[in-house]
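Re: your question from the hallway

Yes, I did run it. Sequences:
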Amino acid sequence: MISPLLLSVKLALVTSVLLLALGLPLAWWLAFTRFRLRFLLEAVVALPIVLPPTVLGFYLLLTFGSRGALGAFWVRLTGHTLAFSFEGLVVGSVLYSLPFAVQPFTAALGSVDRKLLTASASLGASAWRTFWRITFPLALPGIITGFALSFAHTLGEFGVVLMLGGNIPGRTQTASIAIYDNVQNLDYATAGRQSLMLLAISFALLVLINALSRRNGWRLR
Amino acid sequence: MSTTEAVLSVKIHLPLQQFPLECRFQAHHEAIVLFGPSGAGKTSVLDCIAGFRWPTRGEIELNGRTLFSSDNGVNVAVRHRRVGYLSQQPALFPHLNVRQNIEYGLLDLSQLERESRVNSALEHFRITSLAASKPAAISGGEQQRVALARTLVCEPELLLLDEPLSALDLTLKSLLLELLFDWQRDRGIPMLYVTHDQQEAYSLSRRVLVMEKGKIVADGEPRAVFSAPFSRERAALSGYENIFEAVIVETHPALGTMTCRVAGTDLMLESPLAHKAAGEAASLALRAGDILVATVRPSGISARNILAGQIEAIEDRAGMVELRVVCGKTTFRVHITRGALQNLELQCAQSVWLIIKTHSIQFLRS
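Structure:
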């Protein structure tokens, strides 16, 4: 059976990789579009920062349950509900950590000098080539920041997981839930060990990113 | 100008903030200078040709290809236009070294072809030794040479230059112009060069288009274009350092001259005859370099304006010396060489004579 700590790391890794794949195109669009209602989408992306995780978890629970449209579809597809499953946690975490990936991505892509992009186009490069040869490498520090932030944020997730995943050891019991559970059962020794591990991982992650950033001349705020 | 088909044909209508851009011209295998005050719409013309902006109405053709046509709904993407663009900022890719920057536009070529082209460009622009350097590690002049090389290796069918040298000092400027011209002569690429520096316009091209408020107001040889009556903005730009308001006192149609009094003073100037009557106001412009200085009153000289004055200030400028000479209530700016200053042993507060030819005085359009 997978330990709560490993489950947390796995969830954080899957989530931040998915956010890289989904968040980059979204951030690119936000950074370069001239669409007037862009601010509405920006607000939606930022919503998880201010929304209590329990509220987000509550709505996701309704959507993912077997009576929700998405939940019913998932049951037909896989035979089990999206709620109370690892896949459900991934979807919830992607939404919950969305701003922590997309906002740094957008800022990084938007700060690439437009003159370089027009220079690239006038030298005959396609939009695709310009993105991979110019925009992406120049925005890389911000992209790494977004990746690391979404990883760290998912690692510390509590409310959404509790609402959406329940507390099923080996399936949905992440480290933060296990700590809470152990404290409830007055098992302070295990809770302390788990807390220390989470603290160590988070701290090591930030040290690593800041060391990287110092070498590359940028910093994680 | 040859009678063959034009290489570039431009018709643009585009509303700008202050006025509409409304211009049409054709170009052959030649270098054309687009000259005018800042805000006249010069950069917008280049942007439309390069494809960064789209005219609301118009048509742009290059070597028989339609790049833009509002009537036929044609708008070729920037990357397919084969138009090189270089502005004041070199816009080098900071994460790529000089060689990688230059070969950026040559992706479709074989490795061998790419290397040979990049090497010959590095050599031509004398930056071979910088090939492995990042842009941040080289000087502004070197950066601009790299940018020029990067644009030219792609062998564009047209080269657009938007004041590419205005951030550089004089020596670097002339080196770059020389390199650019050698390249242009070998390959015959038509060139559109935006500047508001008249010196550059003279040295660059035999054809100048003058733009004012979105329109082309003059088109021709630099000397002809720059000596026609023109606006106050352009006079200031064109090196007419002295601009005076004056009143016409008397006309002498038989002599082809007029006597003008500089407004508010007793100073009289003899100017070429213009379509104006006595009593009318006029603006006069005079190049600082067209005024002669003498330490004794000259005699037996053809110049009609000989004015007594006193040196108020002597300033050392790049390549010459500027004197400020007060004649009555009027201050003239006069440019002389350093040699002339030493030879005449001119000092502040010294009395001198200014000599101005009648035809050095220009009337400005009111």
